[in-house]
């Protein structure tokens, strides 16, 4: 089998896996699968003509398939969606993805390929964006190309060591006054020393599982990648809340929170949200809002 046929077979298997999850009501898994596949299709669409196995017309079709996958993914995340893209609509696209090399009919839905998402260097965002809310200051936040973030980059728990403690943080939910308007929200978790230097690999959660009133729910476990005893004095664990801005076509940091070493103890903890830009050195902190909105976490300590 040629490489291109293997690729198409892989896409079709991923499509089938996503629609199966969707029909079984496993929405978080379906969203992940749809977004991974949409990203793979977009990558192909963006590849130069001379290195692609697909014609420009086929690439347009792949781009439209990516749009439909994102629309279904968005419909699953937003219960109030008026223009919902249904599972039966998505299933109509299966023959297209399976037979992309020979498909020559009109695309069944009036959609456009997903526009290329812009990659910004940290700090560029400052000149592009003014936040709409009164209680959010515009500033430079770290920003990334969203497609590389979609499925999350969470890491497994480290092996236990005698006398050493590992920490699992469950990110339960975050309270925001405009929670329902955040697109593809996720949280970046990092562990920094007093100078803001990374002590651990940075991890991203998958996109949030649901939104409800003023809360965005994650319910995801993050395994801190260093034994607590090995973290230096003054270290802190940071949580940056990020969301996609379609008008600007980039992912923006909306706010951040952090937890210091003396706050590491088993059980629930609620921490305050601060205005961006993320201040890893913790020198100039400004609360995001006077309203009682927080990041809700639950800590579990594992000692061997």
From TrEMBL:
Residues 155-302 form the C2 Aida-type domain. One of its GO terms (biological process) is negative regulation of JNK cascade. Keywords: Developmental protein. It comes from the Eukaryota. The keyword Transcription regulation does not apply. Gene3D superfamilies: Axin interactor, dorsalization-associated protein, N-terminal domain (1.20.120.360), C2 domain (2.60.40.150). Residues 126-136 have a biased composition (Acidic residues). Residues 126-151 are annotated as: Disordered. It holds the Pfam family Aida_N. Belongs to the AIDA family. Acts as a ventralizing factor during embryogenesis. Inhibits axin-mediated JNK activation by binding axin and disrupting axin homodimerization. This in turn antagonizes a Wnt/beta-catenin-independent dorsalization pathway activated by AXIN/JNK-signaling. This is Axin interactor, dorsalization associated. It comes from Lepisosteus oculatus. The lineage of its organism: Eukaryota, Metazoa, Chordata, Craniata, Vertebrata.
């Amino acid at each position: 089998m040629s490489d291109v046929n293997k690729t198409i077979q892989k896409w079709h298997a991923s499509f089938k896996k996503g629609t199966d999850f969707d029909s079984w009501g496993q929405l978080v898994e379906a969203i992940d699968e749809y977004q991974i596949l949409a990203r793979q299709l977009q990558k192909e669409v963006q590849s130069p003509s001379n290195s692609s196995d697909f014609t420009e017309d086929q690439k347009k079709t792949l781009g439209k398939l990516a749009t439909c996958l994102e629309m279904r993914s968005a419909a699953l995340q937003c219960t109030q969606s008026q223009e919902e893209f249904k599972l039966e609509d998505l299933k109509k696209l299966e023959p297209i993805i399976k037979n992309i090399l020979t498909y020559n009919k009109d695309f069944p839905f009036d959609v456009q390929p997903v526009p290329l998402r812009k990659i910004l260097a940290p700090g560029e965002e400052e000149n592009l964006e003014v936040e709409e809310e009164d209680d959010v200051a515009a500033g430079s936040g770290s920003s990334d190309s969203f497609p590389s973030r979609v499925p999350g980059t969470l890491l497994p728990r480290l092996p236990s060591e005698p006398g050493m403690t590992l920490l699992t943080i469950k990110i339960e939910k975050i309270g925001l006054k405009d929670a329902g308007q955040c697109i593809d929200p996720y949280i970046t978790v990092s562990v920094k020393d007093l100078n803001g230097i990374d002590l651990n690999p940075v991890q991203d959660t998958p996109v949030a599982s649901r939104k409800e009133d003023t809360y965005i729910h994650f319910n995801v476990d993050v395994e801190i990648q260093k034994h607590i005893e090995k973290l230096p004095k003054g270290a802190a664990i940071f949580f940056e809340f990020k969301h996609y801005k379609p008008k600007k076509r980039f992912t923006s940091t909306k706010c951040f929170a952090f937890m210091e070493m003396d706050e590491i103890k088993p059980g629930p903890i609620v921490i305050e949200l601060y205005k961006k830009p993320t201040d890893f050195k913790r020198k100039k902190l400004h609360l995001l809002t006077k309203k009682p909105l927080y990041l809700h976490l639950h800590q579990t300590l594992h000692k061997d």
